[in-house]
């Protein structure tokens, strides 16, 4: 992997994220068009589509032989992680974006032969960029330390509402064992909290674009990222994902049914 090329791409991605951020903040106050996808709880806006098309165009200009996986379908169709694979979530937390105008993120990552090499989560409203490159993780330009390897019973646990309500995988027992549960409605914002050590972990049913950028950073920080069965993520399937400190990850796997 060419370090200079990655450094150059890092600068470009950061500038594209700022353009996508501006688009989101401007549109939310004037011309937001909201549609439903699979259900009334599954929304898409013109900003999700515009931002994804923008990233796809920029990536094709800069890395023409790569494959692109984007939530809104402007990328490519494939099922192998061979070569350069860019993964885009143009607005993560679309429901929050529409209803709260806060707590949403823009996420981009690059995997090379299945290994995460670049990962970006931009907390749009706070303009806080978390990014992983060369095995290190930064909040804006500040290097982040590894979070403490804490136990489940001394940590706040991030979850998704449907899993907790349905008690899928014995989720309510995991919730009770933790110090408390937090549900933010954006995988990206939840993963930022895990990266910062505010949450001991996070469990949600996720698509590759929900976890791709966060995974790069979590693994660099010594956190464990697997499926809820403890298996490796393949980054092309939809999975129930478990991210946690090393110790809590083991404790949670023991509670999963
Ligand atoms: P999204 O906003 O990019 O769709 C809470 O809804 C979190 O789960 C968000 O990060 C959301 O990402 C993600 N998510 C994944 N699948 C979803 C679905 N079918 N409906 C709503 N949110 C989904
Ligand atoms: Ca969506
Ligand atoms: Ca998402
Ligand atoms: Ca999205």
UniProtKB/TrEMBL annotation:
InterPro entries: Inositol_monoP_metal-BS (IPR020583), Inositol_monophosphatase-like (IPR000760)
Keywords per UniProt: Hydrolase, Magnesium, Metal-binding
Keyword Zinc appears in the UniProt entry: no
Protein name (record): Inositol monophosphatase family protein
């Amino acid at each position: 992997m060419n370090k200079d090329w990655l450094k150059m791409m890092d600068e470009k991605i950061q500038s594209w994220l700022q353009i996508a951020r501006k688009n989101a903040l401007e549109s939310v106050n004037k011309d937001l068009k909201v549609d439903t996808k699979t259900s009334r709880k599954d929304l898409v806006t013109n900003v999700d589509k515009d931002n994804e098309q923008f990233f796809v165009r920029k990536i094709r200009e800069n890395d023409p032989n790569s494959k692109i996986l984007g939530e809104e379908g402007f990328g490519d169709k494939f099922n192998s992680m061979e070569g350069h694979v860019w993964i885009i979530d143009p607005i993560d937390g679309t429901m929050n974006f529409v209803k709260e105008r806060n707590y949403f993120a823009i996420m981009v990552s690059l995997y090379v032969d299945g290994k995460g090499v670049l990962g970006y989560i931009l907390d749009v409203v706070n303009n806080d960029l978390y990014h992983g490159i060369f095995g290190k993780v930064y909040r804006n330009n500040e290097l982040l330390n590894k979070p403490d390897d804490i136990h489940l019973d001394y940590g706040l646990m991030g979850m998704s509402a449907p899993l907790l309500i349905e008690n899928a995988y014995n989720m309510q027992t995991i919730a009770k064992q933790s110090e408390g549960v937090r549900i933010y409605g954006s995988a990206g914002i939840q993963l930022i909290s895990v990266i910062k050590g505010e949450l001991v972990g996070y469990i949600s049913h996720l698509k590759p674009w929900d976890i791709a950028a966060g995974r790069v950073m979590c693994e660099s920080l010594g956190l464990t990222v697997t499926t809820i069965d403890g298996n490796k993520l393949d980054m092309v399937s939809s999975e129930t994902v478990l991210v946690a400190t090393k110790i809590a990850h083991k404790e949670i796997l023991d509670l999963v049914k």
